[in-house]
Amino acid sequence: MEQRFPGTAADGATARIVFVAPSGEQITAPGSKRAVAKSVAFLAEGPQVVSVSDPFRSKTLSRDGRTAYATVTFEVGAKELTDDSRNRLREAVHGARDAGLTVEVGGSALNGGGGPGGAAELIGVAVAAVVPLPVTFGSLAAAGLPLLTALIGVGVSLAGILALAHALDLSATTSILAMMLGLAVGIDYALFVVSRYREERAKGRAPQEAAGCAVGTAGCAVVFAGLTVVIALAGLAVVGIPMLTKMGLAAAGAVTVAVLIALTLVPALLGFWPNAVLTRRARREGRIEEQGTRNNWAS
Fold it and tell me: What is the architecture, at CATH level 2, of domain 14-110?
């Protein structure tokens, strides 16, 4: 990138502008071409701008000749863009629209960054809560506990990312990746511990002993799996692209929080509600055994 396009930062903000000529006209018509050229020249003189691609020179035109495409590259990230740079971008868009063109703009230049994800993650959590987990465990509590602890871990991770977003210039993609991985491994690691806890309870162990065995056995698998993922994500720093390094380290932090949650909060909740994660049959048999023990003691 530095050899072919000197001065462009790999993590610099970009804006993509699409110019569409009125119906029945070509973007190369004198009036439309003049409006596009004026907008490109206006943007090229803006502060913090490294380059603006001319759609007529770079041949970024649609086959039907109605649409032209320009890219504005800035020397700094989206968080470091000044209001003057963003306002100049909006003025160029409005100027082309006033000339009769349909103009749309996108890219990271208009994005403040650091925000969490949207509805996709919520839909995934809802599907996991309704379909596979309750069916697999036969207990809403057993299915809900991994979801609850995963959401708590993601909340802690996002709070840290949002707190450091401005200082470290973290983009919205960073928090989205951390949320996705945090949810995935958070649910997975909690399931390890809960599944082993249920197995130990089925063998007749007391709740506290079963929780200790679950953390001592499944917890080792959680630590090993989490450490592997953390090393892989931190390895993105080897590429040498600051944006990928930030994404990898932020996601690695979310995975680390998920591991700590699985080793501490999950067994703590199992201690508060030792029988809630068991199946109805196991809880019913446990009450019968407990009642039988009380009757034998009384007699």
Answer: 2-Layer Sandwich (3.30)
